Amino acid sequence: MAACLSFDFLKPAVRCAVALTAFSLLGACASKDPVGYGVGAQAERAAMVQQANRDPAPDTPGMYLGLIDQMQSQELYFASLAHIDAYEKQYGTTPDTILLRADALRMTDQPAAAASAYAQLLQTPLAARGYRGLGLIAGAAGDFANAAQQLQQAAQRAPTDAVTLSDLGYARLRDGDVNGARVPLMKAAELDQNNPKIVSNVALYLLAHGDQAQAMAVMSQQKLTPDVRAAIRSDAAKVAAAGRAQARGVQTQSQRQVGQARAGAGTVASAQGIDAAPRLLQRFAQ
Predict the structure, then answer these.
(1) Superfamily of domain 12-235
(2) pLDDT digits (tens, 9 = 90+) for 126-155
(3) Separation between Cα atoms, residue 233 and residue 245, nearest integer Å
(4) Structure pTM?
């Protein structure tokens, strides 16, 4: 999905860099970026957990889901899991609670359980979110080929979701498919020009495509910090390495195909020679 250039599946320390960027290139984002660091932020979150545990559950299912969603927006994912259990005990399981649970499991480093939950969404109206979650999990594991496949499924079901398109573009970049990243990234950029993740992915794409001047212009225009620029360059190096690996794989496959073709051609030539001799003999006989 590397320095927080686009993927929510990247490590928290990396994701924070992207939150500082501004224009962008891999539905609605299931995870939230950190709201702050340090003792103050930690104390605030701890206080919110305590308050959430003291407050009685809202009277209606909709209000309760809203409370759980708010917890996740504040990165209180463990607390949200407890309240999802309480919600489902009282109101039953729905696609919305499955999605909330899947996101919380992913963000609390429980990828297997998260993948199982996302898979439950694939036959529901939230299938796009399920595929996107599976893509983010694959990307977090470094399997960008699988991530791109899952995110392609998500984008097909949510074609105007800029974040999903950006994630797809990023996954393709990290898989070495620079040309394949272009269309989803450009769609994402035009759909949401102010998303920092999308902007940084656009800059990454430009660098990977060899348009260094344009990439620098984007980074300068958006006033990206030196750390963020360094992160983008680091990812660009990884994209280049993936591209070389993919090229070697294609070359090896091509060489095998050429070898097979030559072997086949030799067999055909022999057959043609056997078939041609009688015709020549007949012609001479005439």
Answers:
(1) Tetratricopeptide repeat domain (1.25.40.10)
(2) 999 999 999 999 999 999 999 999 999 999
(3) 18
(4) 0.69
